[in-house]
Design brief:
- By secondary structure, the chain is mainly beta.
- It has 2 domains: about 30 residues; about 220 residues, Exo-inulinase, domain 1 (Jelly Rolls), CATH 2.60.120.560.
- The chain has 1 helix and 17 strands.
- The protein is globular.
- It starts with a helix and ends with a strand.
């Protein structure tokens, strides 16, 4: 009987020792991402640009241009389009934003036209932008006190032979197919790090990143922007990703 009790005691000690690292791993794991903006295209409606104080839509403030929302998609035909979600990003909040777009026509003026995100938007003179440019390159730029930066760490996203031949003005983004864009913004360490991903139809692929540790614009609004494209959007979401940056599963590098 005494031997059995000793064996039970040894088993209890071993069990605690084996389970302790697993418990610690669980307790220190980052929180599950919390969706804070979603279903923005679920209700059919037409939205025009207004001043921010007059924006009465539950999800959007249309800063420039207009959008027709139907069948869970937003259709933009304006020469320039700027839309901000009605959600305030906090100064130290790490977050992820993603959207899918498909364009029908391109009527822009050349390589610097783009489709993508506005983020950490404070006002028209202080904001960041990230997306894909008509010349096929990634775009990460800032506008600080009205002055635009250079394009940070550009990478070629689309090559000329990937185009479908229907575009013009040196536009390299293929038309009439759904393309996914994702950004991950980390602000918790006193600087802004932005990572960009693309989904061409076979999963998320890492494109490029940049860290701004000088002219910081923390927090603010996030939304969508286009120049020169007749484009449709779907599945726009923003997620709070907690204290640790999240990398999409199965992502690869261009």
């Amino acid at each position: 009987m005494m031997r059995l009790e000793r064996l039970r005691g040894v088993w209890l000690v071993l069990s605690i020792g084996l389970s302790l690292p697993f418990f610690i791993a669980l307790s220190t794991a980052s929180a599950t991402p919390e969706v804070v903006v979603t279903n923005v295209f679920n209700q059919n409606r037409n939205l025009d640009s207004t001043g921010q104080e007059y924006a009465d839509d539950k999800f959007w403030w249309i800063n420039e241009g207009d959008i027709h929302i139907q069948n869970k998609m937003g259709h933009v035909q304006a020469e320039k389009f700027r839309a901000l979600a009605q959600y305030e990003i906090k100064d130290n909040q790490n977050y992820l934003a993603q959207v899918y777009f498909k364009y029908n026509n391109y009527n822009g003026n050349g390589g610097t036209d783009s489709i993508g995100f506005l983020y950490n938007y404070h006002d028209g003179e202080n904001k960041y932008s990230t997306g894909i440019r008509a010349d096929g390159y990634s775009e990460i730029k800032e506008k600080n006190d009205g002055k635009y930066s250079d394009n940070h760490n550009p990478k070629r996203v689309y090559l000329a032979d990937e185009n479908d031949g229907e575009s013009n003005n040196n536009n390299e983004i293929p038309s009439k197919r759904w393309i996914g864009l994702k950004i991950i913004v980390n602000q918790e360490h006193g600087y802004n790090n932005i990572k960009m991903y693309i989904d061409k139809g076979s999963g998320w692929t890492y494109v490029t990143e940049w860290t701004d540790n000088e002219d910081l614009m923390n927090g603010g609004l996030i939304g969508l922007r286009t120049d020169g494209y007749d484009v449709e959007f779907r599945d726009f979401e923003v997620m709070d990703i907690g204290g640790n940056s999240v990398t999409p599963l199965n992502s690869t590098k261009i």
